[in-house]
User: Which sequence fits this backbone?
């Protein structure tokens, strides 16, 4: 137990130091300035009510200020300001009658929560509106009319926007640099995990699960960087800074693809590494060094003179090339097969090294020729645009919609919390409501985790606050501690909710310590209100129209299979026609990685549901894993044909691609329950076709022939292309059988 506490404190302290250097911390300081300035001016000039209203408006607009393009940030804050102004006007009538307040609370919270239908940024705008609604119970302006108060709240939102724009002018590159270098660091972690997978003794299932999560995080960060870099405004001409960062992002995206490409078939790989175990460490050490260099680049940030050198990596490559070359001289069929496989694996690592070198060069003070920059019109095609049409809202007005059920559940839970708070005469009933909107989320796992973290964080914060209150009775000390706690709480809200809850509790206790002498009562009620709010949130999800992941995951599997199918089609088309890689090819690749990432996230949510709701969990996990393996095999095929001169596509190639596509089509039809009589798969035919597929046979290679690099290159192509096609067909057949049994 003591070790767990020490570990929690150690991790929390490291995270705290990390966040003090982050843009989240800067944004938190900005929020404090936006809140304190109008409040201080209002108190000093005798217009306290006006200062409080502007202060609230600034604070409520803070959640919508999230990472992304400046244009989207501005729109988000403006929409938040408009929403909180309307909500504050409605909230002004909450104090006239309890029954009226209950009805307004239910209807308004449902309507505001439904805004989340429009995506992540919209969900944060929705949260701003909910904050304004709940805190309407906490403050009643005596000297202002309701419409005046609402207008001043809106003005507070504009004040926050002005400060945000000013900060952007002062530090325009801060957000980009932080996300970019964090993405580089995470890519290093991904390479390290891939290197660990090479070892047969590793816990592959656990490593694969961690890899799925890392790939999801990286895909999200790639999208955020795309939005920031592509939609950023330039005052004039071409932005060299942005252009170079876009090229770095391209390297990172391709590194993710290459990392997923090899190894693919672990059974075959293990057999070769067992015969030649020295290659396991050689390949691992090479990948570990690349991972370490990426980690170092992420830590040093924008300091070109501290970039790691190529020396160690070059030595690793040279050692591997010599060993593989020696293996190629052995006149043995098994050795030749291992030589071909290791040579292919080495070439994939060389591609990673090329991307790493290119990235280091771009991040150094080198000039980039203007023709190397990518046309923004092409780049814009890679952005995911959010549809804001009214039909999205109408489509979600159904119990089939997760957002609709969440909105209804939240509204009813808030109404229950309101009744409980008033019937049992809690000191601050709105704290219960505030806890509910902070904890309750559309999925069970996050709601449960937040309930636990919020409760634990509040109790720990209460204990710490109690100790400080006993030792110190100075309002100035309370003011400083409240300010520090508030900044840290906001900084860590997205990353470590438990730690954020501790600091939120501390800031609230110290603020009340300034306003009233009986701080111990405040601490007791704060903990009690949190327990009631957390309990209602958890029970509300369990019994009020719950949304379980198994009801939605089939859609995610279908989307992922469809994206992989499109990617396969693009790869086959490129292999047939050769030439330059078309934009449609890259878009298909992006979509395949994105949908596979979404599927991993959906499965992760499913594992957090109660065991009774984890229907077909093992089969779903197998489907997720098969889908990941399918994408890895596609990536392997894609990289090889992009970077090598390949032979003409044969009729056999076209035939097997058609069969794989047919299998995937049946998988999608089965998942969507649209399969018709006569379309059912014939598994005997599937097995028969797989046995007929061509296979690279090292036994038939003339090992006594003179060394012929062209012949070896053909063998490499034959081994990789046909091995991947056999593997893709096998995976698609297994997926077909698995979905038929669901």
Assistant:
């Amino acid at each position: 137990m003591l070790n767990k506490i020490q570990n929690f404190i150690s991790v929390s302290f490291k995270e705290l130091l990390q966040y003090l250097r982050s843009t989240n911390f800067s944004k938190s300081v900005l929020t404090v300035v936006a809140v304190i300035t109008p409040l201080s001016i209002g108190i000093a000039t005798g217009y306290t009510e006006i200062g409080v209203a502007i202060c609230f408006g600034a604070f409520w607009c803070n959640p919508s200020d999230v990472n992304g393009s400046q244009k989207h940030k501005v729109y988000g804050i403006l929409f938040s300001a408009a929403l909180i102004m309307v909500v504050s006007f409605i909230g002004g009538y909450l104090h006239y009658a309890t029954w009226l307040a209950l009805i307004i609370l239910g209807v308004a919270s449902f309507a505001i929560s439904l805004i989340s239908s429009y995506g992540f940024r919209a969900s944060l705008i929705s949260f701003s509106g909910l904050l304004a609604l709940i805190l309407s119970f906490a403050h009643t302006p005596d000297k202002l009319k309701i419409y005046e108060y609402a207008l001043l709240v809106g003005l507070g939102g504009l004040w926050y926007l002005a400060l945000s724009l000013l900060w952007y002018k002062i530090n325009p590159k801060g957000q980009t640099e932080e996300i970019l270098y964090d993405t580089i660091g995470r890519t290093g972690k991904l390479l390290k995990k891939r290197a660990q997978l090479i070892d047969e003794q590793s816990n592959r299932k656990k490593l694969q699960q961690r890899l799925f999560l890392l790939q999801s995080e990286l895909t999200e960060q790639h999208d955020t960087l795309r939005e920031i870099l592509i939609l950023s405004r330039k005052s004039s001409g071409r932005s060299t800074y942005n252009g170079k960062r876009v090229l770095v992002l391209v390297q990172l995206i391709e590194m993710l693809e290459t990392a997923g490409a090899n190894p693919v078939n672990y059974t075959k790989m293990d057999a070769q590494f067992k015969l030649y175990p020295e290659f396991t460490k050689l390949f691992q050490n090479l990948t570990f060094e690349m991972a370490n260099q990426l980690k170092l680049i992420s830590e040093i940030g924008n300091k070109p003179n501290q970039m790691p050198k190529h020396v160690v990596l070059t030595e690793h490559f040279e050692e591997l090339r010599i060993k593989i070359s020696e293996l190629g001289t052995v006149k043995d069929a098994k050795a030749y097969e291992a030589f071909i496989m290791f040579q292919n694996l080495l070439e994939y690592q060389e591609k990673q090294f090329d991307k790493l070198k290119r990235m280091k060069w771009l991040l150094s003070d080198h000039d980039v020729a203007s023709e190397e920059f990518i046309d923004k019109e092409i780049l814009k095609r890679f952005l995911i645009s959010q549809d804001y049409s009214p039909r999205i809202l109408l489509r979600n007005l159904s119990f089939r919609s997760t957002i609709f059920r969440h909105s209804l559940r939240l509204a009813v839970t808030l109404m229950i919390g309101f009744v409980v708070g008033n019937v049992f005469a809690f000191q601050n009933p709105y704290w219960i409501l505030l806890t509910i909107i902070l904890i309750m989320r559309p999925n069970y796992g996050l709601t449960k985790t937040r309930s636990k973290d919020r409760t634990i964080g509040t109790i720990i914060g209460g204990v710490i606050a109690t100790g400080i209150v006993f030792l110190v009775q100075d309002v100035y000390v309370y003011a400083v501690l409240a300010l520090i706690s508030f900044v840290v709480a906001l900084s860590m809200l997205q990353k470590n909710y438990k730690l954020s809850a501790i600091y939120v509790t501390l800031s609230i206790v110290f603020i009340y310590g300034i306003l009233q002498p009986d701080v111990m009562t405040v601490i007791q009620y704060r903990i009690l209100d949190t327990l009631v709010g957390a309990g209602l949130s958890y029970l509300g999800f369990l019994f009020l129209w719950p949304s379980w992941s198994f009801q939605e995951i089939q859609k995610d599997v279908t989307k992922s299979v469809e994206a992989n199918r499109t990617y396969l089609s693009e790869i086959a088309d490129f292999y047939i026609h050769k030439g330059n890689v078309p934009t449609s090819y890259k878009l298909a690749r992006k979509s395949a990685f994105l949908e596979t990432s979404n599927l991993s996230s959906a499965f992760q949510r499913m594992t957090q549901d109660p065991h009774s709701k984890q229907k077909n969990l093992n089969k779903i996990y197998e489907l997720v894993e098969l889908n990941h393996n399918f994408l890895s095999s596609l990536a392997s095929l894609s990289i090889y044909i992009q970077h090598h001169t390949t032979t003409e596509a044969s009729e056999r190639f076209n035939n097997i691609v058609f069969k794989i596509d047919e299998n995937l089509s049946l998988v999608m039809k089965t998942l969507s329950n649209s399969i018709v009589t006569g379309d059912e798969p014939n598994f005997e035919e599937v097995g028969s076709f797989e046995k007929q597929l061509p296979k690279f046979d090292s036994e038939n290679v003339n090992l006594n022939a003179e060394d012929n690099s062209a012949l070896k290159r053909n063998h490499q192509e034959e081994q990789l292309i046909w091995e991947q096609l056999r593997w893709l067909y096998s995976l698609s057949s297994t997926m077909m059988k698995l979905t038929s049994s669901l």
